[in-house]
Amino acid sequence: MSGDVAAALREPWDSLRRQREAAEFGVWIFLGSEALLFAGLLLAFAVNRTLHPAGFAASGRETDIVFGTVNTLVLLTSSLAMAVGSEAARAGLRRLALRALATVLLLGLTFLVLKGFEWAKDLREQLWPGAGFRLAEPGARLFFGLYWTMTALHALHLAGGLAVVGWLSWQGWRGTRPLGSPAFQVAALYWHLVDVVWILLYPLLYLGGRA
Where is the Heme-copper oxidase subunit III family profile domain (predicted)? Predict the structure, then answer.
């Protein structure tokens, strides 16, 4: 057994392959529970969109499609970088893995900063579904209630992913976690979930009413 493999192994596993399979199985169970959470919100959006088509269409035209589209491109690029980083880590390509993970961190932070600017613009335009909400169409408050809930929940998941990627990058850079550790592949699976959720949110929140 090589030194890198021995360093990556954790009890009770005697094989890195079995350890990786167990880690991936565990994270898939976790991702399934997260998918159910977002599925409930998406179902609520679909039902209310059917009940209030005019209000949801009018609200969709109020979202900022420039911010939404740029952030979609940012997140898709970060997902590509995450795939490169996890595969480079598996192959032992330290420099490429660390550079790819640094790119993921940069793009993830860019997404959150842009989202912060977008939320600030929404507040200035009185698109918070509370006192002073400026849209009168039936269902508009429901749209923006779901909009704020889903985008905030997504941002929290992305921030959690950034924390994990940053921690793994720091350990990989210091050499305290070998690149052969399954943690890099597990982090990649989580990051891709964040990406997939946004791919579902983007057409619902930004393209509805503009077709």
Answer: 1-210
